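re: ur question from the group chat, yeah i did fold both. here u go
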Amino acid sequence: MTKYDQRGQKVNTQINADVVHLHVSNNEPLENLPENNAYEEITPFLIGVIIDLSEPMLKALYKLSTKDAEFAERLNKALNMLVEKSLAYCKTPESKDVLPRFSLFVYGFGLGQARKGIANFFERIGVTSAVKTNIPTESVRDLLEEIAKLEGLPTTPNAAQLNRSWKIYKKSIEAQILDMGDNNSCLIKALQTAESRMIEEMKNRNYQNPMLLVICSGKFTDGDANQLSTTCNSIKQSGIELIFGYIGDTELESRVLYAAEKDNWDYGVKQLIKCASDLEGTGKVVKSISEMAIEKSWKVPPKAKLLLQFNQQEMLDELIDIIVSPLK
């Protein structure tokens, strides 16, 4: 097993030949980053990400792609651009002083047990793998954890560590593909899991302005609106900024942030805006997002909520700039 030090550097330089290659970038690791102890007195940022991988989300994406033939291509280009812009920043001289201050984790929800079922089938007929691993079966799971633990990497890496070892972390995410598309869209459970993770992480280090970004369709099957609201209020009362990235049928007006729901919105997105944090918070990350939105000439009303739509063509590029603005 390949081992890594705290900065994500390989101790054993031998690495398996089947490591997945990025299709968007031949990313080279940063060089000459300071030792971690140089940042012990710096209060870092903690960013949690939750991604809806359930059947309702996949159906929403499919519906959007059939209604708009270029949607999938635009979304792919936008995601590639997000990676490219992040990697470009990772190569700037100032990044070595910034990246170690940003730590993050990523959860997916709506995951099934197809991979485990296939493994069990092969085991019953006497076909086993030489690689011993505990195949995850939870409907909500850490997307970075499986391969990170095998390779001795941190499960809450800072941005510099993630940059260095992205090919390996990406392999962990890809291992979950078979399980995507379960019909149990357990958004509330995912939020509760992420909140517990945030609180546990904050016990170990005094993180500054923790932020949780939830990318979802607004559909959930594990509770009602009151339970969702209670869970989100608990998160916000813990000092965590809650941002929702919406993908779905409801068309939000371009370059507009909203302070309240509209009558023509569907049920899911109405719940999301009620649960999102106010943009008028005092945190540095929230202020950065607000300033960038205004700079991009977005309409930002008083008490605007942190609800963003991810499937509008004219907004994708600007959303990416707004999302990565706290790194700048």
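okk and heres the other one u asked abt
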Amino acid sequence: MTDFSSQTPETPASGPQSLSDNRADTGAFDTGAPAAEPAAWADGLSEDNRTLVESKRWHGESQVELNKALDAYRTLQGDLGRSIPLPGDDATPSERDAFERRLGRPDTPDGYEFDLPDGLPESFPYSEDLAGRFRDWAFRAGVPAKAAQSLHNDYVHELAGLQQAETERLSTAEDQSHRDLVSDWGEVDSEAYQRNVLLADRALNRLGLTEVMRDFGVIGAEGGVRDARMVKALARVGSELYAEDNLHGSAGGGDNPFAGDNPNLTEQSRLIREARADPARAAHVRSLMHAAGIDPAAQRI
């Protein structure tokens, strides 16, 4: 057995004279304190293992230090047993599938079960079709079930926020359009306002632009005007082309502006605003809307 303590720096040797002499080459951690010599049980170890013994400070009584080494090995073995190896670049589809399932991904897209998150507006139109596509996306990406639920919640909340923002934008546009028309034509009960509304509505219906204006968002589904500029332009067109017609006889909508194949959209807008501002008018407007098969709640009446 080699006696490490009997060698001196001047004694030539084919290798390092002690583990501490080779510290810079092995990369072992150097605390600056004198390194203790390995116990006798380390004599038969390879150079790399002797370096590990020294770096871990497994010195002293052989049984104590050997227990430390075995304890460390047992801990490492347990950690490895609980670990999930990452698939390599050359992993097969079945290997990747097994890896994703161990992470918590369901066996099929239908295995994702999504609960609606809290805090959604009651009117939020949750789409099962879109939820189905979300399941497919999550499955293709190998997303675990719990992570998919979290992403689903964030996605739904984002959609609800966008819907709310759009609803507020359209409501603001209708309010601003109403103020613009009142500013140019006078109050809604004035003769000028009533005449321009009828002229604009006549031009809209005679030119067949009702659906076009809805498609472009100028007029809402329930008749709310969102762009006063277009209504003013239609009023001018109506004045030039249809002013000689009986204004009160063919504006499209009869006594109920919400009814008929060509409803009086501008008159609808006026009545809706009056109902919102005056509870006494709201009952009458609601009755007209119910008679035409329209839900007043959709217009906040």
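fwiw on the second one: The longest helix spans residues 145-185. The chain is about 55% helix and 0% strand. idk if thats what u expected
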